[in-house]
Fold this sequence. Notes:
- By secondary structure, this protein is of the alpha+beta class.
- The protein has 2 domains: 1-45, no CATH class; 60-204, Beta Barrel (Sortase, Chain: A), CATH 2.40.260.
- The chain is built from 5 helices and 8 strands; from the N terminus they run H-H-E-E-E-E-H-E-E-H-E-E-H.
- It has an 8-stranded mixed barrel.
- A hairpin with a 4-residue loop joins strand 5 (139-144) and strand 6.
- The model is unreliable at 16-47 and 223-238 (pLDDT under 50).
Amino acid sequence: MATNRGANIVRATLGLALVVMTQSLVLGVGPAGASGSTERAASTSSTTVPCKRPRHGFVPTRARIPAIGRSVRVVEVGRTSSGAVGAVPTTDANKWVMSMDPQTLPASRRGSVLLAGHTWPDGSALGNAMLKNLHRGDRIVLAGKNHKVACYRVSERKSYPVNDVPSRSAFRSSGNERVVIVACSGKRLSPGHWSRRTLWYAVPVKPQAKPAPSSGGTQPPPSSTPSGGGLLGILGIL
């Protein structure tokens, strides 16, 4: 009699443990591993940026570059008196500022969106971070007011001698839209003068199409597995 009662208690305890564990897995709470995974997924989804571009060009105020782990301010800088692409002053306050030529705007669907970042000899500026970490396949997100966003992916990275930059083809006002980022590189010859220029070419990222709704096909029959195998089925799905 006592033996049967003890066996019943053990079975009831195991059954309750299976129910609690199943609920924890479904809700994403409970064990540290499951909770940690949920937090990482939430963190990832919160940083996801939709890439549906506006219908018209816009002025960006921020540039997010995941490869360097930074979001930087974007400032419009006009051309110089000789027609050259301008840049923000070389000061400590502008070490992490991206300058943008205002002649072609993101989402304008034509020409080169020209951006630039300073390179410092001590390696502490935006240009240095891009030279070290920004490569083909990396993403660039330009954001402006009213939640306007345009996303690009680096398609090519090239380094040129300072006098051999293909300005006509790189800094164009026609053709398919793309972003071109410029940074000084190579050897520092004197303050503000470097031997080379590195250019990143980035093409627009098209928004992913939403998955088609289910066609309402036949649902699989319910499993006839005993209760002891129900947890294994849930684990297999998760």
